[in-house]
Design goal:
homodimer, alpha+beta, 2,3-Dihydroxybiphenyl 1,2-Dioxygenase, domain 1, 40% strand
């Protein structure tokens, strides 16, 4: 499947983004990044399990040499992030791949039996997360910045 | 901390390594890799929570462009892998960093309040895993091939 040969991001769900950002900063020897919040529903048009959802998250990013670490604190309504935290506690929520076109990526995943649980837009791109029960042992994110 | 600027491996604990290897192979469009088993206790000298342990695992590797995906099926006695599966189910168990010297890496982690839960050797190197309750949201592996 095109775009799957490079993991561009590791997304970690945490309970308290400020606390976790501080510890990551110490580990990496970098400044504590400012967190941002996912955009409003009117922009994201987020859909979770087939329905519009007001789920949001606080996000903080650490850019390493070969990959980005994304910290995610779920806020607001239902989302894959909140569900993961409720089910598993803190942990790696997803690994992300850069794809040209989200829809053809989704179609390719469907062909090998992997379904999508959440999708949405952000200023400058769009994304889709797979269901967790996919046999791969981890949620995949398809990320498109076009 | 030296060596922490590059994630070299994402380790995923799964229940059935043969099943998961097949799905990963389909996703990546590659041959199904043969799994191997971690070496005997006499080689690994594995210690889990301060005590020698007979915990082992089946391992399978997928080499991507910028990172390796390691699938891990826990077998045998107590281990961080088995504990993760019991506590969380399938998921990303760790992200690994390449360090020159395990002991100085362990010492640097200790200084920022992150402790080690399991360590051991393999032919050609050694490793240490942090405790899961470390504020980072994920277990880190220090991996040394010297």
């Amino acid at each position: 499947m095109s775009g799957m040969n490079r993991v561009i991001q590791i997304g970690i769900v945490v309970r308290d983004i400020e606390r976790s950002s501080k510890i990551w900063s110490k580990l990496l020897g970098v400044e504590v990044p400012k967190w941002t919040e996912t955009e409003d529903e009117s922009v994201t048009k987020m859909r979770y399990r087939g329905k519009p959802s007001s789920g949001r998250a606080k996000l903080a990013f650490f850019t390493l040499e070969n990959i980005t670490i994304e910290l995610i604190e779920p806020i607001g309504g239902p989302s894959t992030w909140k569900n993961f935290l409720d089910q598993h506690g803190e942990g790696v929520h997803h690994i992300a791949f850069d794809v040209d076109k989200i829809e053809s990526g989704i179609e390719a995943l469907r062909k090998i039996g992997v379904d999508i649980e959440q999708k949405g837009n952000f200023t400058g791109g769009s994304y889709a997360y797979t269901c967790s029960a996919n046999g791969l042992g981890v949620i995949l994110e398809l990320l498109s910045k076009s």
